[in-house]
């Protein structure tokens, strides 16, 4: 072993990675104390390593390393022939067999001078205990090799040859607890730096501060119940380590499932996927909160929703359509609910007799999602809850779905809500606090975290919402609520051009202004069937379902007014 | 019947809709002749209708209309109780049963004064012949009703009650040829205008001119083998009618299938979906051809590919990932191959031993797509070929996939290609004519339209392409070819930060410049496994497979330097 490779002092608590606490990346300004501490620790470790190295040099003198071909910082010259295995696949049949695998070094811990425990991890949480034990004759595994393994920086990617063994008792700290790997060879494929921006242990905990502001004198790292955490900003600034955390993997799995369950349900109901454009020629929905860009000699805008395009599809004879893709909002809202770019799950369908056909279809798809998660993602949800606690998401019993009209909701708020809502009216939109208060009342009364609020007032809806033919003050439009927060907006659309012109004018807009004219023209150009639909924000469904502190933990690369990186 | 509703004269050839030829929307400038002709036709039709109406008035005098409740331009006051049916579902069990349905009036044709044939169509090509025959006593269906039906403008959306019958002989002009509907009620839900921007018949044919230029004195409509066609611009400017054409539906089905086959294959291989951002903080790949926009106090760019983000996913411990979403190119290229926004199908995966693991995975997914299309989309492909002829897409026999190195491809071109390619070298990228010539040679030699070109020269690849460890002049990177055109670019990526810095510098870039530094930092921050991947343009795969004249027929809403609408 080269003396230029310092060994590391490793804490004995395997739950905390070396340097897992104070080493984790502090915010730029509030970091001095943490940094000083970290330097001190590093220095201590270095000295310990030097002492150890000196002792080793003394004891083994210039003893020949009989295992020097079996480890190293580059790939071996001769290929390993043992079969490749993934940690998630290890089973009884592999016991006493030699295998090879690629994995990250998650942790290492010396046991005397002759043995090293090294935790190896594949995607997500698939970790196993590796054992590197020097043989008596120094062949196969030497003392030098044991020491060298302890010096491999954490989160390095390694190639390993090992024999699968049954440990004396299950290895509680690893997901693969019934087996361990007795390493015979180990090579670094890609080394990690000595100091990580954020350690695996800290990345695996809940985020601390959510805001992106750097506050003078406030340290990034917070001690939450004894364990250090890092701010959301530090997590996001270290995408590789943030993404490696088991909780991140589990949230990803849930998000992927929500999208798949949405698409699969609709496909089974005859919906066809299409792709609306992101670049559009005019700010279609009023012009506020829209990103604008130079487009050759013209200007273009980024679509705020696929609304118009979903309707064009219906006009083009596609009976039922859905789309999944990014939508853009130039809102300067720095809250845990907002992003400037997010993935929308949208659908639109022909109506035969009544717009509740659409409402029930959307209710069906959301219940399918919630039931699918509860059934098949129990492990992921439990893992996420161990980091971000939440109560079980309550669903209505089949056939007992809760559907209130907006007026009924307001009446409930007036009668049983907090005193400040004693005089809410049926004509104004609900505020977020009103929504939350109503959500609490509905939960108490009907034992569900999911319900529908139908017949929104005309003033609370855009021009394409169809007024109720029997009550001109309300629309055939609804919101869906999760834990007291709006998760879906939808309804029946105006499908006759003269009615559309009237609703556009009633909102103070001109049916012939750019961006709106082209839309009305489609309805003027052919007969368009009655239709309706709805749209969901993917990240919000996941965040509200899991009661996460922010949607920024759900999106792969969240975009906010302050964040365009990574 | 109100005399303000003119009846229409309908040509007897059902394949040509009324006004199907000269009525179709001409380009703005070159339209005068067509317009004059159309006016003349319309005037002729109007006069004929007047004559007919006068004759009818004479014969029946002010005879009472005993069927007046059974038709009209708005929905009936009493609901129709017959079960709803979709045209695609009509079967023997429905014969002699009364049903209701919603459909478009595709065509109508009078047979004497007492009978009208009216073609009704649902999504795509699902058309059926409707019969409206006046009863002797004028109850149920009256002569007035028959006439009124003939006056319903084509492409209006109607509600119909009818009895399913077996026709005397199959109705060749309709896809539902074994049944016909004897109408008892018909109401217009949404009327189409008298004059369509483009008729169903013209929309159903191949597009004429592809370019978006308006050429003085050139008419939009071209007569192709006797049948009028409209330009691509006219098609796209009439999205509802363009989309209603059976060929558009069929292309949509193929495009949907390509995306689904891509995703399903990769999911089955353990790939996880993620969503890269469209908004990015710096022009990452050199800065050319990138859209820029104001982003609060900063600037943002639209992503040209998910390349960096796919790699971040690998760094974050996701072994295999894929994504489907829009990418943006600010190229002022007005060709049938280019769009400024298109849907990319991308994947990235860890490599165990050799980058050909990735190449074979991509080969597998493309062959899965091609075989899936050939197996399950025969009807759609045949329909498309009836409009856009193409030769069968030749695939290699299983186990006989064709993989040439770039140098082998150039050698083949030199030896057997056209004389102008007699001195092509191994260090320069191939031009499009070279690619096409090589495609023809490969087809002749190996009987396949699909093959792989591996080991591209370093100069033809971006900085993230890994140089071949055994030959520094070439890379571990490949293109996939379809009918002699590149359809996929991919390869192994540099995964070690110091090597990445070197390749970045070799391209004349600075590893610490904005947009590149953040990328390199991710490789500096952890150990990143060896990995590789590739990306496909969804619309191009479909267009090349079907040999369509332009990718703009595949995208739902194509975006070009000249087109941001609809």
TrEMBL record, chains A, B:
Could you confirm whether the keyword Nucleotide-binding appears in this record? yes
Entry keyword set: Aminoacyl-tRNA synthetase, ATP-binding, Cytoplasm, Ligase, Nucleotide-binding, Protein biosynthesis
Recorded E.C. number(s)? Answer: 6.1.1.12
Where in the cell does this protein reside?
A: Cytoplasm
Keyword check for Cytoplasm: yes
Annotated segments matching region Disordered:
1-57
> Catalytic activity, per the record?
tRNA(Asp) + L-aspartate + ATP = L-aspartyl-tRNA(Asp) + AMP + diphosphate
Give GO terms for biological process. aspartyl-tRNA aminoacylation
Domain of life of the organism in this record? Eukaryota
Instruction: Show the InterPro entries listed in the entry.
Output: Aa-tRNA-synt_II, aa-tRNA-synth_II, aa-tRNA-synth_II/BPL/LPL, Asp-tRNA_synthase_2, Asp/Asn-tRNA-synth_IIb, NA-bd_OB-fold, NA-bd_OB_tRNA
Ranges of biased composition (kind: Basic and acidic residues): 1-11, 32-53
Cellular component terms (Gene Ontology): aminoacyl-tRNA synthetase multienzyme complex; cytosol
Checking Pfam families in the record gives: tRNA-synt_2, tRNA_anti-codon
Where does the chain cross the membrane? none
Similarity section: Belongs to the class-II aminoacyl-tRNA synthetase family. Type 2 subfamily.
Record protein name field: Probable aspartate--tRNA ligase, cytoplasmic
In its UniProt entry, the species of origin is given as Lachnellula hyalina
């Amino acid at each position: 072993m080269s003396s230029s490779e310092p060994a590391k002092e490793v804490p004995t608590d395997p739950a905390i990675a070396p340097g897992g606490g104070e080493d984790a990346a502090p915010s730029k300004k509030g970091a001095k104390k943490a940094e000083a501490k970290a330097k001190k620790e590093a220095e201590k470790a270095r000295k310990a390593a030097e002492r150890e190295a000196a002792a080793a040099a003394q004891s083994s003198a210039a003893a020949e390393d009989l295992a020097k071909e079996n480890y190293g910082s580059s790939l071996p010259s001769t290929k390993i022939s043992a079969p490749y295995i993934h940690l998630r696949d290890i089973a009884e049949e592999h016991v006493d067999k030699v295998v090879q695998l690629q994995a990250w070094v998650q942790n290492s811990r010396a046991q005397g001078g002759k043995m090293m425990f090294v935790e190896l991890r594949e995607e997500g949480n698939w970790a196993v205990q590796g054992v590197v034990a020097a043989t008596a004759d120094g062949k196969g595994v030497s003392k030098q090799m044991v020491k060298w393994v302890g010096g491999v920086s954490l989160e390095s990617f390694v190639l390993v040859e090992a024999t699968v063994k049954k440990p004396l008792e299950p290895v509680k700290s690893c997901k693969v607890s019934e087996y361990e790997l007795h390493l015979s060879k180990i090579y670094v494929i890609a080394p990690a730096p000595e100091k990580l921006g954020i350690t695996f242990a800290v990345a695996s905990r809940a985020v601390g501060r959510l805001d992106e502001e750097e506050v003078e004198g406030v340290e990034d790292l917070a001690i939450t119940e004894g364990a250090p955490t890092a701010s959301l900003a530090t997590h996001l600034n270290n995408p590789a380590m943030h993404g490696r955390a088991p909780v991140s993997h589990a949230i990803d799995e849930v998000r992927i499932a929500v999208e798949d369950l949405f698409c699969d349900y609709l496909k089974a109901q005859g919906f066809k996927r299409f792709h609306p454009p992101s670049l559009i020629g005019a700010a279609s929905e009023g012009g506020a909160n829209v990103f604008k860009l130079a487009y050759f000699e013209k200007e273009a805008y980024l679509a705020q929703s696929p609304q118009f395009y979903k309707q064009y599809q219906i006009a083009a004879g596609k009976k039922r359509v859905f789309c999944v893709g990014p939508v853009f909002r130039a809102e300067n809202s720095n809250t845990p609910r907002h992003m400037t770019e997010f993935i929308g799950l949208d659908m639109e369908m022909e109506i035969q007799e009544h717009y509740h056909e659409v409402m029930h279809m959307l209710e069906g798809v959301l219940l399918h999602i919630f039931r699918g998660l509860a059934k098949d993602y129990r492990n992921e949800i439990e893992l996420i809850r161990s980091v971000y606690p939440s109560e079980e998401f309550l669903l209505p019993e089949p056939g007992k779905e809760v559907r209130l009209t907006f007026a009924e909701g307001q009446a409930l708020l007036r009668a049983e809500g907090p005193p400040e809502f004693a005089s809410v009216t049926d004509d104004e939109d609900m505020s977020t606090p009103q929504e939350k208060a109503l959500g609490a009342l509905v939960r108490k009364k009907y034992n569900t975290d999911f319900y529908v609020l139908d017949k929104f007032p005309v003033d609370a809806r855009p021009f394409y919402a169809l007024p109720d033919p029997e009550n001109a003050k309300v629309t055939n439009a609804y919101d869906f609520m999760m834990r007291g927060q709006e998760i879906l907006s939808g309804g029946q659309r105006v499908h006759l051009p003269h009615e559309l012109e009237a609703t556009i004018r009633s909102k103070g807009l001109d049916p012939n202004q750019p961006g709106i004219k082209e839309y009305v023209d489609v309805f003027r150009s052919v007969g368009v069937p009655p239709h309706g639909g709805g749209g969901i924000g993917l990240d919000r469904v996941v965040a509200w379902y899991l009661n996460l502190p922010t949607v920024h933990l759900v999106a792969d690369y969240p975009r906010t007014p302050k964040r365009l990186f990574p």
